[in-house]
Amino acid sequence: MSDTIRPGETLLPFDPGDRIEAGLSFVGVIRSDWSRGDCPRNIARARETGRPARIELRPGYAAALEGLETGQAIIVIGWLHGARRDLARQVPRHAGGPRGTFALRSPVRPNPLSLSVCRITWMERAAGQLGLDAIDLFDRTPVVDLKPWLPGADIPPEAHPG
Amino acid sequence: MSDTIRPGETLLPFDPGDRIEAGLSFVGVIRSDWSRGDCPRNIARARETGRPARIELRPGYAAALEGLETGQAIIVIGWLHGARRDLARQVPRHAGGPRGTFALRSPVRPNPLSLSVCRITWMERAAGQLGLDAIDLFDRTPVVDLKPWLPGADIPPEAHPG
Fold first, then answer.
1. B26:A22 CB<8 A
2. CA A56 vs CA A16, A30, A53, A73, B25: distances in Å
3. Residue A4, in any domain of the structure
4. Strand partners, A124
């Protein structure tokens, strides 16, 4: 983790990693073809590659999959453990200039949670495994939550299809 | 926090709250009209009430809002600190029977993160405050992340409008 900043970037007045107020427990891990050097920068790019991925849940979580179905869309929340947490404003390589951390999907954020909307392509419930159409996360990224994606909740009103 | 379970519910073989592997730092707090007794059960219901809400960021985070605009949709991730974490299968009051935790948007989950898609209705960037069209969270729920909502990422391919 680098402690240098680029021109236009702004540090928070503290490192959020030094002010922990709640704790996460990993429920499983992403298995993907991606490593730090070649990981798609977002889920749209990841879908374009056509490369699937999977989630391996830890022992005990298989029953938590009941009710999910192949073909269904889910929200995968991961933990980007290597990402720095102390930038309020950053200059991503692909962006035109500095932007606030909350206006970006960059992994660099006070709580480095990732959020990817995926389709379930297969399930082995008893083994606690499920296939994903795509993922924009390195192999072995910890997973902290799965939620069903619901159009009535997860599309803002004015952008709803139809 | 109750330690009883309903018929059809299944406990995890451990409490995830006892196996903490990563830490969250709160970036701000929800201010809403809702308390435990009257909180809308999801964001769709919250929108129907027509009651707005706001986020008050902690000092230091104002610069992280740069680039967000009034009218834009954002994803608000909150921390549901009172929720139990040890159910693999649960029977929510409104559901017909037991379902896996990962098939539900219930606050009861191994990592009680909430996810709400909201529209920004006003911003006071310097004060670190922004208005939301609606929220399905109690007053003073801690906020752990804000992300821009992006149709190309946050709608699964087959359900994309058009």
1. yes
2. 29, 7, 10, 17, 27
3. no
4. A129
| Coil, strand or helix at A114 | strand
Q: Categorize the per-residue pLDDT at A59 as very low, low, confident or very high, splitting at 50, 70 and 90.
A: very high
State the DSSP code for B81: T
A1 part of a folded domain: no
The Cα A55–Cα A119 span in angstroms is 12
Shortest distance between the Cα of B145 and any Cα of chain A, in A, equals: 7
Q: Which residue of B has its CA nearest to A113?
A: B145
The pLDDT tens digits for B46-93 are 999 999 999 999 999 999 999 999 999 999 999 999 899 999 999 988
Count contacts between A and B (CB, < 8 Å): 230
The ipTM estimated for the assembled molecules is 0.95
Among chain A residues, CA nearest to B82: A22
In a domain, B128, yes or no: yes
Name the residue among B19, B68, B144 with its Cβ closest to that of A103.
B68
Question: Rounded to the nearest 5°, which phi and psi values hold at B78?
Answer: -115, 170
What pLDDT score was predicted for residue A63? 97
Burial A138-151 (b: 16+ CB within 10 A, else e): beebbbbbbbbbee
CATH code of A90's domain: 2.40.30.70
pLDDT confidence bin for A162, thresholds 50/70/90: very low
Instruction: Single out the residue of B64, B43, B84 nearest to residue A16, CA to CA.
Output: B64
State whether B27 and A158 contact (CB < 8 Å).
no
Helix and strand element counts for chain A (H, E): 2, 10
Q: How far is A27 from chain B (nearest CA, A)?
A: 7
Please tell me the distance from the alpha carbon of residue B26 to that of residue B40, in angstroms, as a whole number. 23
Range of the domain at A104: 23-150
User: A103 and B67: CB-CB below 8 Å?
Assistant: yes
- The answer as to whether B12 is a domain residue is no
Number of domains within chain A: 1
Q: Round to whole Å and give the CA distance between B20 and B125.
A: 34
